[in-house]
Amino acid sequence: MKFIKYISILLFILTTSIASSQVKFEAKASKQKLGINERLRIDFEMNQDGDNFNPPSFSNFTVVGGPNQSVSNSWINGKRTYKKTYSYFLAPKKRGDFTITQASITIDGETYKTLPLKIEVTAAVDKPKDPNDPNFIASENIHLVAEVSKTDPYLNEAITVVYKLYVSPTIAVDNWNEIDSPRYNDFWSQNINTQGQKVQNGTYEGEDYRYLVLRKTVLYPQKIGKLNIEPLSLDIAMRVPSNRRDIFGSRLMTRVNRTISAGNKTINVKPLPETGKPIDFTGAVGDFNFNVSTSKSVLDASESLQLKVEVSGNGNLKLFKLPKISLPSSLEVYEPEHKENVNTTSSGMQGNISDNYTVVPQYKGKYPIQSISFSYFDLKTKSYKRLTSDDILIDVSNGPLNNTNANKTGAISNAGKQPVVLNNDQFAFIKTTSNFTRIKPTFFFKTNLFWSLLLFPFLAIPLAIVIRNKKATRDADVYGNRIRKADRLAKKYLKGAKKSLGQKEAFYIALEKALHNYLKAKLHIETNDLSKDKINNLLKKKQVDEQPINDFISILESCELARYTPIDIVTMQEDYDKAAKAISLIDKQAR
Q1: How many CA atoms lie within 13 A of 569 on its CB side?
Q2: Alpha-helical regions (H) of 22-69
């Protein structure tokens, strides 16, 4: 009997486990890897009907279709087969590795969940065209093209990439959204402002089209060899003609969403020739002028003058160093102030850069400043050129003479020196006897100091407990600590700017430097190749709100404009407070 009892229990357990295993609820993806211009289908399938279906959030995707619900119910050889499916069609928002989290449903009072799905989104890929697909018309009548000005530039030679959107007159574009921006690895890049561009008429592959210039970017390659320019990808909402017609015989329009890409571009960067390369060549490429000048040539000792080393023209002005000057030791020289007045257009950088030295002579005399030279690679002649400055003579008319130069022979004169005379009273001031007195001994035991030191540890224990409790409370205040840390960070970076309040140029240079140094520390990047668009995108990826980002970029723009407009100290204080608030908010919100 016991054996039969055990068998019954075992059969019951097996029956229960089989019954529970019959419930299936799983998520299936149409593909695990897709391009940013492709679509993804996610199916949530169950073999029993359920309630309270909760889909994932799809935070990194845009739901372009669904949920579509389908039910399949069949009988085969007396056995019922049931399947219910919820389907979603997704478009990725950006590149990266993402996880589609769990969906849940309630079946017979039990909650079931799917397993997470790993999805990899890559750069745009070429997709086959399906003539029967409504998107086929759109694919044949709208094109995003990247036009590269030169495919075989020299190292540090400017090239321009222009992105144009060509649209056939037969379709209408409602709106578009940039979903993937090119990452110009191995290039120095600068976007050119294209706001206000108008739609123009043109041709694409021999057919009439309308086109709009969406973006212009100037690139300076920083490596030789084959470099890849990644594609720009857009999500476009448009209306295309369908096969249906209205009662008047006109074609009806169908709304279509389509992701298009400009495609990858490859350029072959040539190295600069080694033949004739100067030893002091620092990488300047373009067409330049070179000049060394002083604010004055005649002055008095301790009076300052400004010495400027300047390069102007067209080329990679921000990507090389200016030559250093060599001055006589009698001229005190301070670290130079670097200035850039550079405008980036479709043809590259234009303007001038300079190092401004403050020089203060100490002694009267005439001081020659020897000429210095600057070398660069000329793209027109494809050869190296050297420019040399003129000699400059500084005449210090009034001031003390340099005594080190008075005796040009280097001899030391003994005139006027007296012999040393020794006498017997020479050491008479040294005492040979002492006046020591006996000091009365003192005792430490039972003195006030003794009792104070004895009782101090007992009094310090409650104080230490109170301090530790306050520290624990402060450490537990995560939000408060984050606020205090952010405020300290803002004060740290803006310390230099605060010292220069009231001095317009010095203040805004220090403020701009503080903002860039903060970005370097926060984003772990170099900021000399960052545009405002990139700053905006990087901070958004850190989950920073729109308002602090706009304030930060606004302050950067103020720093640029302040050099050319009159600014009072009230405006400077407002910009300082705005910068401190922006840094503090960004540091609190950034993840």
Answers
A1: 6
A2: none
Q: What angle do CA 172, 173, 177 make, to 5 degrees?
A: 170
| Domain identity same for 295 and 320 | yes
Distance CA 32, CA 43 (A): 13
Nearest to 539 by CA among 513, 518, 558, 561: 518
In angstroms, the CA 565 to CA 570 distance is 14
Do 178 and 79 belong together in one domain?
A: no
Q: How far is 345 from 192, CA to CA, in rounded Å?
A: 7
DSSP string, 58-125: -TTEEEEEEEEEEEEEEEETTEEEEEEEEEEEEEESSSEEEEE---EEEETTEEEEPPPEEEEEES--
Nearest to 382 by CA among 300, 282, 271: 271
Question: Are both 149 and 215 inside the same structural domain?
Answer: yes
Rounded CA separation 303/92 (Å): 66
Q: Residue 535 is part of which domain span?
A: 478-589
Taking only the tens place, the pLDDT of each residue in 495-509 is 777 777 777 777 878
Average pLDDT of the chain is 80
Please state the domain count of the chain: 4
Q: Which of 57, 62, 58 is nearest to 36 (CA)?
A: 62
Which CATH number covers residue 556?
A: 1.20.120
SS3 state at 324: coil
- pTM value? 0.50
Q: Are residues 83 and 32 in the same domain?
A: yes
Residue with tokens 């300082």: 576
